Amino acid sequence: MLETLYKETTARMKKSVEAMSREFSAVRTGKATINLLDTVRVETYGTQVPLNQVATIASPEPRLLVVQAFDKATVSEIVKSIQRADLGLNPQVDGQTIRIPIPPLNEQRRKELVRHCKNVAEDGRVAVRNIRRDANEQIKKAQKDKELSEDQEKDGLAETQKLTDEAIKDIDNLLARKEKEVMEV
Questions:
Q1: CA-CA distances (angstroms) from residue 115 to 28, 103, 141?
Q2: What letter does residue 39 receive in the DSSP assignment?
């Protein structure tokens, strides 16, 4: 019973860390990266779809993104979607190609991005702690129902805490890396 609980808890914690990592990849650092546009959704043919489903995205230079629309009719909607995404980008249309110069970040914007990253990391930590709470409740319930001994309960709670500490350490490492990347000039 405990092994299954550990596997489920580990998987859920891993998903939380991965979700936070994806959110970090969308934070602009002053360098062109195709992940920057991951959060952009385009209204096309009556539905919202991710940008990468209606166009190819490339980064031919360190400070330039190039978006090549599959369908010329979607170009204006792609531009509007990029502007609505509030990434601080100014797309320029050239036929079916959209060029997006990546402006350098000023110090104030860098600090805002770091603050945003810290909030994302804290949300990740809260999610991990909630997963720990759920696992601990299951362990305590199993002990109360006499499925586990008190020693097994104690070991189970300790193992859950160990898994939590590892996940939070991963989050802190990701945050430190992203903070360093954002503050680089």
A1: 13, 20, 39
A2: T
